[in-house]
Amino acid sequence: MKIKKIKSIRRIRKDSATYNIQVADNYNYFANGVLVHNCIDDAHNVLEVESEPKRQKVLAVWDDTLSTRVNDVEVGAYVGVMQRTHSKDLTGHILEKRKDGQIDNLVHVCLPARYEKNHPHPSDTPLNFTDPRTVEGEPLDKGRHPEDSLKQLEGKLTAWGKAGQLQQRPRPKGGQIVQAGKIKIVDNYNHRLVKKMVRYWDKAASEDKSASHSVGLLMASMRDECIDYGFIVLDVVYGQWTSGERDVRMRQTAQMDGIEVEHVVEQEGGSGGKESAQNSIRKVFLGYKCSADHPSGAKDVRLEPFAGQVENNNIAMLSAPWNKKYVEALEECSVGSVTDFGDGSSGAFNWLNGLTGKGKSKVRIGVVG
Q1: Cα separation, 218 vs 365, whole angstroms
Q2: What pLDDT sits at residue 173?
Q3: Residue 251 and residue 284 in contact, taking contact as beta carbons nearer than 8 Å
Q4: φ, ψ of residue 235 in degrees (nearest 5)
Q5: Which of 243, 271, 289, 320 is the most exposed place for a label (fewest CB within 10 A)?
Q6: Looking at the record, which segments are called Disordered (predicted)?
Q7: HSE-up of 352 (CA within 13 Å, CB side)?
Q8: Residue ending a domain, choose from 116, 134, 166
């Protein structure tokens, strides 16, 4: 390949069709013998963004390839104009890196089609720019999309389409399946009104930040005398741990919960899943009440009973640092894609209400007094 310097550039005024090419993976191609580096159009395919491997592939291209393509780091800049497709899409990835101090000099401009006073990802610029709108729901550009036009556009899109393309949200406000904003936050609860407590474990084993979380969610059903809510989420422990670290955390949690809490371990399909669940019951939770649950059916369907109680203002959660992470994870749940926190919520709720097939997979270990 020969490298030739451009001697001059001149504009030719001519009405003709112009074509561009997008090449998979590296976006480079030859046009009339000239190597062209194309921009990335739609970094994420909206039909594939729920796939963890495919989403991670896009992030890897950014981190390992595109991040070094600036000729002069002093004056060069990257400009990304993107819709939101997932909380861990390219925009979310970059914002998270800034939060962790890995990226400096990031200018983030967020202009939703309708004004949201408490938008989760507001603009953050060196000029301290803020959205000039003050009325909730006010259109961004009344000249281009007045109210009637904007309503027609919104009517053509799904809840996720409106959230990502118009509101610059990775998920619909309030959530698609679980209206997490309706969960009541309480500072305390009356322990004497607790009917039963269950901590449901959805296990994973990885320290990779892109991997699934292990989640242990403690939920209680309340007696009829509790008129404000019927169920309360009391605690959520979670992390991306190795199998050894996870088992230690599970044991510690059981010791802190005490013998009045029943622990339920989700049993994945196959012999490996059964062996893992039995190992937790016989070793990790030795001396505590513990059962294995082998749920069936789609995860989003299993989440519906819990979601219905949330929608009817019958779910509360105890005020704690994990609240924000929990609510965000519930809002991410969608048809065909349920987070680990969603699994923990549905598992605990369904177990408390006898909505699982626990009779087939239950194993009890005697309680040590």
Answers
A1: 19
A2: 72
A3: yes
A4: -165, 150
A5: 271
A6: 117-146
A7: 27
A8: 166
Q: Is 185 found in the same domain as 155?
A: no
Decide if 88 is inside a domain.
yes
Q: Are residues 185 and 215 in the same domain?
A: yes
Q: What's 344's domain CATH number?
A: 3.30.420.280
3-state secondary structure of 117: coil
Domain that includes residue 32, residue range:
28-166
3-state DSSP helix/strand/coil percent for the chain, to nearest 5?
30, 15, 50
> Residues 161, 207: one domain?
no
Residues 199, 292: Cα–Cα separation, whole Å: 12
Q: What's the pLDDT score for residue 172?
A: 74
Q: How many CB atoms lie within 10 A of CB 363?
A: 13
CA angle 166, 169, 173 (to 5 degrees): 100
Tell me, yes or no, whether 162 and 185 share the same domain.
Answer: no
Rounded (10°) CA dihedral 113, 114, 120, 121 = 30
Interior/surface letters 265-284, b for 16+ CB within 10 angstroms, e for the rest: bbbeeeeeeeebbeebbeeb
pLDDT digits (tens, 9 = 90+) for 122-177: 999 888 888 999 999 999 999 988 999 999 988 888 777 888 889 998 877 767 78
Q: Where are the alpha helices (DSSP H) in the chain?
A: 52-64, 90-99, 147-155, 159-161, 243-257, 270-279, 299-311, 323-332, 340-352, 358-361
Residue 58 lies in a domain: yes
pLDDT (0 to 100) of residue 259 = 92
Higher-confidence position of 31 and 88: 88
Instruction: Choose between 271 and 249: higher pLDDT.
Output: 249
Tokens of 83: 């819709």
3-state secondary structure of 91: helix
Nearest residue to 257 (alpha-carbon basis) of 274, 232, 283, 234 = 234
143 and 289 fall within a common domain: no
- What pTM, to 2 d.p., does this model score? 0.61
Q: Are residues 248 and 303 in the same domain?
A: yes
Element housing 98 (H / E): helix 90-99
Two tokens, residue 302: 């299993």
Same domain, 228 and 328: yes
In a domain, 22, yes or no: no
The total number of structural domains that make up the chain: 2
